[in-house]
Every structure is written in structure tokens, then in C-alpha cells.
Design brief:
The complex is a heterotrimer of chains A (about 160), B (about 375) and C (about 400).
Chain A: H1 3-13, E1 18-19, E2 27-30, H2 35-44, E3 52-61, E4 66-74, E5 81-89, E6 94-96, H3 104-116, E7 119-121
Parallel strand pairs in A: 2-5, 6-7
Antiparallel strand pairs in A: 1-2, 3-4, 4-5
Chain B: H1 14-19, H2 21-25, H3 27-63, H4 79-89, H5 100-118, H6 135-143, H7 146-156, H8 160-191, H9 196-201, H10 208-211, H11 215-230, H12 242-245, H13 255-280, H14 293-301, H15 304-323, H16 331-359
Helix pairs in contact in B: 3-4, 3-13, 4-13, 5-6, 5-7, 5-13, 7-8, 8-11, 8-16, 11-13, 11-16, 13-15
Chain C: H1 7-12, H2 21-28, E1 41-45, E2 57-63, E3 66-73, H3 81-85, H4 90-98, H5 105-120, H6 126-154, H7 159-179, E4 188-189, E5 192-193, H8 201-224, H9 227-233, H10 241-246, H11 252-256, H12 263-266, H13 287-309, E6 331-339, E7 342-350, E8 356-362, H14 364-376, H15 381-391, H16 395-399
Antiparallel strand pairs in C: 1-2, 2-3, 4-5, 6-7, 7-8
Helix pairs in contact in C: 4-5, 5-6, 6-7, 6-13, 6-15, 7-8, 8-13, 13-15, 14-15
The chains are: A alpha/beta (about 160), B mainly alpha (about 375), C alpha+beta (about 400).
């Protein structure tokens, strides 16, 4: 399946998907509500079968006031890949956990929670992954500041 | 044995000397003799351990395509002395929450058990410290004491890894003691004695490993495996299990106390190897082939002490070879090997040995003429 | 100092509960139900432990020798690389990648360089691609040599460790000739290579291959055929293909589970499409399969290098002006490659300036470690060590 075919197949799967611009691979945006169901559809579709969640991370779009969750899915049978994004409110980022779809998501979501502060609903074990439990703030947010940073605008 | 009363070297065993007229005549002399004998034994023990450590390091190094110690003395020959000195002067770190008394007692127990086992080993017809008539029984008994030290060391360290190591060691040593004793019993049956010197003398016409067709070899093989397990060497070094338990039962030991565990380990290697040599390879008896009298006379020229040392060295080398080639077994595999494989074979072997003795037709005499 | 970034998110989201390590441990704690039940206990494996290969900490719930639960605690070498990356230029990013998985630094460099090149649509010549491929495969051999040695040591055989290091040293020396560095090379730069290869490089590589091929058989004689090794590895830590995919395993771990997914074949980069090689695949996905797959991969890497080393094309080794400021057009770029341990991905979020807006490393060990947890439950402590070693984790790669 080439890029356009893949994109049209994904878009025809559900009306809730919308294409995403400025990426190097087929990309769609999905709403946060019902993300789990949409991902299940992508995983179980016979022509898509995205069974590997390779990347799960987030981007802090501070100007828009949004946090974008980025999932890059790969199919181990067809070897094609797809990027799925979901925009969250930056002030109150809550998203459904995908750990029931891909086991690895539990692990990756803990990292996103740790570094971006995204709270996951129905996550089996939501706690910080890389930083200590009592760390203040979420370092990969763009407005995060602490004493150890490279650039210290407040000094 | 001569009856001279003033020299160890001329062939009086210490026990005879002490137990003889010297004890009643001059108590201070007896006291001095006991003191001297103990000092000699400990000196011999330390020296043997040092030589073994050096040998192990060199042998391991050459197995592993490197040189080993090269800096202290010629080819690093003084390295062991330097290391012992270092261990003497190192700080003895005792963790706060240990059971101090037991923590201090454990290495001493290990060394004591080893020392007791060592005195029964006759090195040549003229050098033996305690040539008692229940030598085999005594050695089996006191070598089991060593595990007490290991258990105490692991328990008193207040460290879960140490405890795991100690429990492994306990289970392992107690299990393998059975197989080891079964294989020793085969020889005791054939020799008809528990006295080491008698066992050796019974092999004048042929070593037990091949004098009894298959039984001797099977017993030797079981002995080799179980004694390796008994002294916690690879592939049975689960008690230390460096990659699993960091250092096992002696994780919390340092300085001299660690050195004592180390000493006990190497002396145990020596004891196990000499036991193998005494029971199965004829001790100090020279190597003879049937009726080749010229060859046999030539072999007789080599002194018995050298024969014994050669056999022991061979067995020690074998043990080191195994250690630096084999990976470690898992704990359940270790137990399976003992209870499901070695123990039944050992029992059957012992039964066959008993039958052979009853039938009185068992000596393998190779006669080419 | 007022901390601004955290407040909004932490304050307003209290309805989603957040756990902590202590709570997690309490969650797994249970008292023995009857007098006959054994008492379970928790023990810290690491951060200082010989076979966690660095500062990985695993909190184990043990029942005697049996591992009941594993709680990995990460972050002991967390260096905030993704945050750091937002403050430095694209050319400097390569220096960060060396420190991810320090055993395949060159491949990490390549992923980063390639991500920048693809984003900027820079065409490389064949010389650069061929040399990069050769270096990557040499690095794969080197990494697997070290793994083999350490694997032996973790199983209790010390000798393989020194054999592995002895042969690894030969490749390190070859790298040192060209790059002047032995571990963190940062040699592959966006736009080409830092400098041309050493004139003796092809000869030395050929000498090495000639030396190493019989050595691989020696490895087999020393370790592969040993009956204890078979006992320790076969049927231990089984990861079936479906679970392997679900837990995001990649590299030899995934392929040992029977999933033939190798980016060198499925999504060829460099000059892999011009070379002949097989992708070794396991059947059951136990430790033994992972061992065999890696041993086989070394042989395949030798094959690849042999095909390339004799005809390295001529040409410049840098197609971009060195020192030029790199500006990547706005967008999200994701690039991945097959390193010795699995897929290393770099996600670049560019905003048209000289620095990335966001940079994410998808590291192989991070995902592979997760598979260990599902593999090792219910097995013995010694099996956990074997599994950890067969997955071949490198902790700085996990923590970033």
C-alpha cells in the first residue's frame, strides 16, 4: 500500500480521523474521546494490522495551549507505518490509556506522564518512570524551569 | 614408622609423639610439640593456599589468553604474599545491623573445620599428623562442619543476598555429602579399612580406579563431581554465584575475615584433591604396569611424596580446568543432578561393589604373559 | 524561585490517581495465608548489581529462589537528553546519540544524521553510504562480541568474557585508526562522515575478518555446545511472537520469537539493498533462540562487510558544507534504523529554526526491558539473570 492508499484507507475507517499536515509519513489526527476504540480498529483491521506501537510520545505546543500525543504505529506483516496524533488541553491533559491495546503502552505512557504530566485514565500503574516520585513538575513542558537548566532566563 | 623421639621428619607422626613417652616425661615438651605442630599445620595451610591461589590465577590467565600476575617478583610469584599482606591490613568492615558475634565466628568455624579435615591427610608414608583408624569417618564428619560457618556467615550478615547464598550452600553441601560418602564407601569396602594409610597400602598392586572393572571408575567420577560441589567450585559455585548474588555468603565480609573464607576454600580444594588421590589413585603408590619390571623399578625410584604431590596437582589442575570452562548450574538443576542422578547411581554402584566383594572375584590383574 | 510549568497540570488533575513506588510495593505485598505458606520477601536487584549491566534497579518479590514480581525502577542515569536536545543545534545532536547505547555509538550517530538528512532532503553519494554500512556492521559484530562475553559471565563462565573482549579490541583498534575514538565516536555527521577513512582501513578490516571467522567456531566450541548452557537456556524466558510484538520488542529479541522484522530488509537504508544477507529468525523465543540469533547475526554481518569492503566507491566523504547552520523545515520527521539491540528511532519536531522544537529517541532497550518482566515471572533468580543478559540491555539507553 502506498502513502495515499494507506491514508485513504485509514480515513475511510472512521469519520473521526482527520489528516495531519507536515509529516514525513501518513499521519492522522484523532479525537481523545474514543481513542482506544479507534486504535483497536487500526490494530485489528485486516489490511492495516498495526500491531506494533513503536513510538508513543508527546509534543508540547505551548502557543496553541495544546499537548499533542504522537503514536507511530507499524505493521509487522505489511511493514507500513502510520502516525496518529491526538490533541489535549494543555492545562488539563487527560487521555485514555492504550495499555489494553498494546502492552508496551503502559510503559510508554508512564514516561509521558512523567515528562509531560498527561494523566491516563484506566492506567494500571500510573507513576513516574524516570524521575523520582516526589519530583516537582514535568520537565519536557516548554515552560518548565528549575535550577539545573541550561538556559536560565530568570537569572 | 621409626621410634625416634626427636624428629618429625624421621617419621614419627605428631600424635604418636605426643601420645608416647614425651607426654608423660616432660609436659612442657609436649606442649611445645602441640604448639609447634599447630604452627606447622597452619603454616603449611597458608602456604598451600597461597600457592593454590597463585596457580589458579596463572592457570585461569592462560586459559583466557592473558598473562595473569606479572609484576610482583618473577612472573608474579610473590603476588599471593602481597595479596595476603594487603588483606591483613585492610579495614575489617562490619555492617551495623549484623549479629556481631556470629559474624565474627563464621569465618573461624570455616577455617577450623578445614584445619581438622587437613590433619587427617597423610602426605607421604612418613608425613602424617593424625593417622587415625577412623580417618575416613572423621574427615566426612568434620568437612560437614564447614557448612555451618557458611550458613552462619550468610545468616548473620543481615543481607538477603548473603542469606540466599548461604541457604544454597547449605542445601548443596548437605545433598552432595551423601554422594561423596557413597563413593568413598566403595573404596572403604574394597580396602577393608577406614585408615588412610591402610587404604593406600591396599593399592600397592593396583589403584582402585581401575582395579575393580567399572565400579571403581564410576565411584571416582561421582566423587569428582560431588567433591567439586562440596567445595563450591564452578559449575557448582551457586553459594557465591557472582553474577546472581553479587558474592553470596561472604558479601559482607572484608579484610582478614574474607581472607579466612578464601583460605578455607582453597584448602578444601587441596583436601578434596588429596582425598581423590588417596582413595582412587593410590596415594603415594607409584604407577606400575603389570610385569614390566624395569618400568616398575624406574617408577619406584620417584619418592612417594612426589607421587602424591603429582596426583594431587593433577586433580587440582582438573578442577581448575573445569572451573574456567564451565558455566554455572541453576539451583534446581543442581538438586536434580544430585537426587535423581548421582544418588541412585551411587547406591547401585555401592551394591554392586558389595556383591563383587562377596563373590571374592573382583581384582583386575592385567597379565600380558 | 517560582516554578511555573508544573502547577497547572498537577493541580487541576487530581481526579486521576497517581501511584508511587512505595504504594506499588505495598500493592504486591501480601501476608502468608496459612502457617504452611512461605513468606515472600522483597529484594533490590541493583542499582549496583553485577548482572544488571549498569544502574538498573529491579525490585523483586521473591518466594525463596522464585521471582514472583518484578518492579523496574529506572532513572539512575537519566540525563535529560530530550530536554537537552531542545537547546542545541542539529549537528550537536549526534554527540548526544553516542551516549545512548554506548556499545553501538556509530549506528546511533547514523540514525541521527540520517534523520537530519532525510528532513533536509540531502542526497548522499555511494562512498558515504557504503562506508556507513561497513562501520555499522563492524559495530554490530563488536557489540555482539561484548554481549557474548557478558552473557557467558552472567551464566557463570568467566572465560568467554575475556575472549569476547580480546576480539572486540581488534575492531576497536580499527575504529581508533579512522576516528581517533574508541567508544563514543560521533564520526557519522549529518551530511557525511567527519573525515575520510584511514588508508589502511580496508586491509585491516580484511585481516580482522580472516581472523574472526575461525574464532566464531571457537566461540561455539567453548560455549554453545556446553551441556550446562543448553540446560540453562532452552525453554527459559519464552516470549512468543504475539507477545513480543505487543510489548514492543525489537531487534534480535523480536526475531528470536519468530517475527522476521528487520529494518535492513523491510525498509532498506544505506546500501543494504545491494548486499546479500539472511535475517536469522528463531522459533520458540527462549533464551537459546536469542543466543543463536545473535551468533548467526555476527556471521551475517561478516558476510555484509565482506561484500562491501573490496569495492568502496570513490568520492568525497562530506556532501554538505561543514559548519553550515542546519535549518530544518517545519514538520515532524521520524526515522528509524536497526541497531545491534533493535530499532532506534529519532522523532524530530522541527519549527524552522536551528534547534529542534522537540526530539524524541525511541530506544530499543527501553522497550525490550518491558518484555523481560513478562518473561521472567515465576522463574528462578538465575533465570532472570540469563533473560536479562539474553535481551542484552544497556541501561543508559533505557534512561536517556
Amino acid at each position: 500500500m502506498n502513502r495515499t492508499e494507506l491514508l485513504s484507507t485509514v480515513l475511510s475507517l472512521s469519520t473521526e480521523f482527520s489528516p495531519r499536515e507536515k509529516t514525513d509519513r501518513p499521519a492522522v489526527l484523532a479525537p481523545v474521546q474514543g481513542l482506544t476504540d479507534l486504535m483497536l480498529k487500526l490494530r485489528d483491521h485486516s489490511e492495516l494490522s498495526f500491531d506494533m506501537l513503536t513510538v508513543a510520545t508527546a509534543i508540547d505546543w505551548i502557543k496553541e495551549g495544546k499537548i499533542e500525543l504522537v503514536y507511530i504505529l507499524i505493521s509487522s506483516t505489511f511493514k507500513h507505518s502510520l502516525q496518529v496524533g491526538a490533541l489535549l488541553d494543555r492545562e488539563k491533559p487527560v487521555a485514555p490509556s492504550l495499555s489494553s491495546v498494546w502492552a508496551i503502552a503502559e510503559w510508554q505512557e508512564r514516561e509521558i506522564f512523567d515528562l509531560f504530566g498527561v494523566r491516563y485514565l484506566n492506567h494500571p500503574d500510573l507513576r513516574r518512570l524516570l524521575l523520582e516520585d516526589d519530583w516537582n513538575g514535568h520537565p519536557l513542558r516548554k515552560d518548565y524551569v528549575d535550577d539545573f537548566m541550561l538556559e536560565r532566563p530568570w537569572r | 614408622m621409626s621410634s625416634g623421639s626427636n624428629s618429625l621428619i624421621q617419621g614419627v607422626s605428631l600424635s604418636q609423639w605426643v601420645g608416647g613417652n614425651a607426654w608423660t616425661d616432660t609436659p612442657w615438651l609436649a606442649f611445645a610439640a602441640v604448639l609447634g605442630g599447630t604452627a606447622l599445620t597452619i603454616g603449611f595451610m597458608s602456604l598451600t593456599a597461597m600457592v593454590l591461589v597463585y596457580a589458579e590465577r596463572k592457570i585461569a590467565a592462560h586459559f583466557q589468553c592473558r598473562l595473569g600476575p606479572m609484576r610482583v617478583g618473577w612472573h608474579g610469584i610473590l603476588q599471593s604474599i602481597a595479596d595476603s599482606l594487603k588483606l591483613f591490613f585492610k579495614e575489617d568492615i562490619v555492617p551495623t545491623n549484623t549479629d556481631h558475634l556470629l559474624h565474627a565466628l563464621a569465618p573461624a568455624l570455616c577455617v577450623m573445620a578445614t584445619l581438622l579435615a587437613l590433619i587427617t591427610i597423610p602426605l607421604s608414608p612418613s608425613i602424617s599428623i593424625a593417622n587415625m583408624n577412623i580417618g575416613v569417618l572423621f574427615l566426612s564428619a568434620v568437612s560437614g562442619l564447614g557448612v555451618l560457618g557458611i550458613l552462619l556467615g550468610g545468616w548473620s550478615s543481615n543481607n538477603k543476598w548473603s542469606l540466599l547464598g548461604a541457604m544454597r550452600a547449605g542445601a548443596q553441601i548437605i545433598s552432595y555429602e551423601i554422594s561423596m560418602t557413597l563413593s568413598i564407601l566403595v573404596v572403604v569396602l574394597f580396602a577393608g579399612s577406614m585408615k588412610f594409610s591402610t587404604i593406600i597400602e591396599s593399592q600397592a598392586t593396583g589403584w582402585w580406579i581401575w582395579r575393580v572393572p567399572v565400579v571403581g571408575f564410576v565411584a571416582f567420577f561421582i566423587f569428582l563431581i560431588s567433591s567439586t560441589a562440596e567445595i563450591n567450585r564452578t559449575p557448582f559455585d551457586l553459594a557465591e554465584g557472582e553474577s546472581e548474588l553479587t558474592a553470596g555468603f561472604h558479601t559482607e565480609y572484608s579484610g582478614l575475615r574474607f581472607a579466612m573464607f578464601f583460605l578455607a576454600e582453597y584448602i578444601n580444594l587441596f583436601i578434596a584433591s588429596s582425598l581423590g588421590a588417596i582413595l582412587f589413585l593410590g596415594g603415594w603408590m607409584p604407577f606400575h604396569i603389570g610385569h614390566f619390571s624395569t618400568f616398575n623399578h624406574l617408577m619406584d625410584l620417584i619418592p612417594p611424596g612426589i607421587w602424591f604431590a603429582m596426583k594431587v596437582c593433577g586433580l587440582i589442575f582438573l578442577s581448575m580446568w573445569i572451573r574456567w570452562t564451565f558455566p554455572r548450574l541453576r539451583v534446581d538443576q543442581l538438586m536434580r543432578l544430585e537426587w535423581k542422578i548421582l544418588l541412585p547411581i551411587g547406591l547401585v554402584n555401592l551394591a554392586i561393589a558389595a556383591c563383587l566383594i562377596l563373590s571374592e572375584y573382583y581384582f583386575f590383574v592385567w597379565n600380558p604373559l | 524561585m517560582e516554578i511555573t510549568g508544573m502547577t497547572a497540570a498537577t493541580m487541576s488533575n487530581t481526579e486521576v490517581p497517581v501511584s508511587s513506588l512505595d504504594e506499588r510495593i505495598k500493592f504486591f505485598q501480601n501476608e502468608p495465608q496459612s502457617a504452611l505458606a512461605t513468606q515472600e520477601y522483597f529484594v533490590n536487584m541493583g542499582p549496583q548489581h553485577p548482572s544488571t549491566h549498569g544502574v538498573l534497579r529491579l525490585v523483586l518479590k521473591m518466594d525463596g529462589e522464585t521471582v514472583r514480581e518484578i518492579i523496574p525502577v529506572l532513572g539512575y542515569v537519566h540525563r535529560g537528553m530530550e530536554k537537552k536536545a531542545e537547546y542545541i543545534g542539529y549537528r550537536q545532536q549526534v554527540h548526544l546519540t553516542d551516549r545512548l547505547d554506548y556499545l553501538c555509538a556509530l549506528m546511533n550517530n547514523w540514525v541521527m544524521a540520517d534523520a537530519v538528512e532525510r528532513a533536509m532532503k540531502i542526497e548522499l553519494n555511494d562512498r558515504i553510504l557504503t562506508l556507513r554500512t561497513i562501520f555499522a556492521e563492524l559495530q554490530r559484530i563488536q557489540s555482539h562480541q561484548l554481549w557474548w562475553g557478558v552473557f557467558g559471565m552472567d551464566l557463570g563462565a568467566f572465560t568467554p568474557f575475556l575472549y569476547g573482549f580480546r576480539d572486540r579490541e581488534k575492531i576497536t583498534a580499527i575504529f581508533e585508526d579512522t576516528m581517533g575514538a574508541r567508544l563514543t565516536m560521533n564520526y557519522i555527521q549529518p551530511g557525511g562522515l567527519m573525515y575520510d577513512i584511514h588508508p589502511e582501513f580496508p586491509r585491516k578490516v580484511k585481516d580482522f575478518l580472516k581472523y574472526f571467522k575461525p574464532i566464531l567456531n571457537e566461540y561455539d566450541e567453548l560455549f554453545t555446545g556446553n551441556v550446562i548452557v543448553h540446560q540453562r537456556l532452552k525453554g527459559i524466558g519464552i516470549l512468543d511472537g504475539k507477545t513480543a510484538i505487543s510489548v514492543g520488542a525489537s531487534g534480535p529479541v523480536l526475531r528470536a520469537s519468530g517475527v522476521s522484522y528487520d529494518l535492513r530488509k523491510s525498509d532498506p537504508y544505506g546500501v543494504y539493498s545491494k548486499t546479500q544477507f539472511e535475517v536469522p529468525v528463531g522459533t520458540t523465543g527462549d533464551c537459546w533462540d536469542r543466543y543463536i540469533v545473535r551468533m548467526q547475526e555476527m556471521r551475517e554481518s561478516i558476510r555484509i562487510v565482506e561484500q562491501l569492503i573490496d569495492n568502496i566507491p570513490e568520492g568525497p566523504t562530506m556532501v554538505m558544507k561543514f559548519g553550515a547552520k542546519i535549518r530544518i523545515p517545519e514538520g515532524i520527521y521520524y526515522n528509524q534504523m536497526e541497531t545491534a539491540r533493535g530499532i532506534l528511532g529519532v522523532m524530530l519536531v522541527a519549527d524552522g529554526t536551528e534547534k529542534p522544537y522537540r526530539l524524541h529517541f525511541r530506544t530499543p532497550n527501553f522497550n525490550n526491558l518491558w518484555s523481560v518482566i513478562s518473561m521472567a515471572k515465576g522463574l528462578r533468580l538465575a533465570d532472570l539473570v540469563a533473560i536479562l543478559s539474553s535481551v542484552d540491555i544497556v541501561v543508559p539507553d533505557i534512561d536517556r
